[in-house]
Amino acid sequence: MKNIALFLFLFIFFAVLYRVDGVQMLDNSVVRGAEEFRNDAFTSFFITISDIGSIKVEYPLMIIASIFLLFFRKFLPVFFLWGTFYSIRFINVELKDFFHRERPSFDAVIHAAHYSFPSGHAMNSTAFYGFLCYLILEGTSAKDRKRKWWICMTAVLVGLIGISRIYLGVHYLFDILAGFSAGMVWLLILIKMYETINSKIDKIRRA
């Protein structure tokens, strides 16, 4: 619960702070600064990374993961994986509509619809890839050294997805930070719900 409260506080902090003039200047400077690093190689790389954080990659990946889990009769993980995928998107749209922050008005590489705050890619990827990582860790031993690698790889991937949105000119820094924070709040809530239900199912099976 402490971690949930921490990330919720961070989200509220970013939501309040992004309206401050000094922070808006910082946001603009970061986007402008990212434009200075643009070249064909970086642009191609970050478009690919951005796509990994979109529905065009996450949905097929969810299908593949679901088939694998169903093969082993893991019904609850499949239910929560799909629940994560759809619920986080619904929450993100509601938050965007609430805050009504316009996207950067600079030279964006790609077109992005809807409002800017919080970042959908950052928020969705944090929850989706975070829960996918959790399911992978659930199937490994607590002493398995690969656990740290899975966590690190997931964190790096999600971080790069956030950076890609700034580089491509469709999000501000505080959009991304808020997206990460909100995504973590929902991810931790879902994990808590999953563990509670899974524990009750195990007790019923053992009875």
Automatic annotation (TrEMBL):
Keywords: Membrane, Transmembrane, Transmembrane helix
Location of the Phosphatidic acid phosphatase type 2/haloperoxidase domain: 77-191
Pfam families, alphabetized: PAP2
Transmembrane region(s): 149-170, 176-194
Name of the protein in its database record: Phosphatase PAP2 family protein
Organism: Metabacillus idriensis
